Predict the 3D structure of the following.
Amino acid sequence: MNCTTLNFHYDFLTSLVLNDPEFFTKKVPFMKAVGVRTVWLDNYIYGEWQNTPEEASRAKAMLEDEGFEVQAICVPLGHGGNALMGGDEDDPSLPPEFRNRIDVYGNRMGTTTCVDDAVIKNYRKAFEIHKEIGFTQIFHDDDLRMGMWGPHLQGCYCERCLDRFYKQYPQFDGMSRGDILRLGTPGSEVRDAWETIQCGSIRRFLRESTPEGMTPGIMVMHNGDRRHGIDITGIKEDFPNALFRVGESHFGDHNFTQPMARPSLEQSARKHLALIGSVENAFSETTTYPVGALSPENFVEKIRWEIGCGLRNIFLMSGNIFLPDAYWEAIVAARDELEHLAVSTPLPVLDGTPIDEDFVWHE
């Protein structure tokens, strides 16, 4: 990869390739005009195929014939509520063998998943099939975490997670959910231990579900870190070539245009990029969600901010709806300017030193 130029990425449902009569006559030309090099097929969401493996293989071949690199994207654990679909439409249900996470108050968190043997078995089987089809990379959406967005210590407080916590850290045996939260202050032994357990769930998921020879990726949510079960440094130890999308949020004009939007977005992106330690393996979160919430003009402005942070893999995302024409036209119109900005903006020095300051929490 040439890190002085832009590399555009885009994901969409496999069914779009096979069933949309305008896909190859209209949508493919838009992607080529923007410079999309890699497309990511959404084959597997919430533990279930969205199409048959044979359809995935056929769509992959058709896209490769158009000159694209084709990889896979997965939505593994559930965002909670209807965050995947947006609007009033409910998210797909999780398989019955998947267990929801439990919050600190003992409440079940709908459309979320606690990682266990059943979850890993489900995804390992699916990813082995992806490997057979010819996919070499699997990018996981930012529901691959153990907590919701926010500054507080999080995780799954189910009995199994608590038991693992007590066994691995017997000095805290019997500690209640509330005490874990109350005593888990920044820098405390309790907090470090609890975060290690939660991060261990995500690291285990990646280690045991990823077939040999495949490279996993994780889309880190805005301000995501160890308190949410996301340990970028630990994941890199397990997979040195792992892919990471930095967390940016600010998907709509209502929050993108606020005074704190840019500091919040850029600090999250820069902190994640410092931990990733490689521009080659870092991707942007260039998202409008729900589709249309961020105007085409601000969508392009977001790309400018991302380039300024040091990102060169620009990952365009729009949920399960293909970006409307106005977005592609806006990027094409700004393409030369964006390329010049990428070439003329110095890349950050990434020497493994983390940015030691808390996130700016703004949504």
Q: What stands out?
A: The CA atoms of residues 146 and 155 lie 5 Å apart.
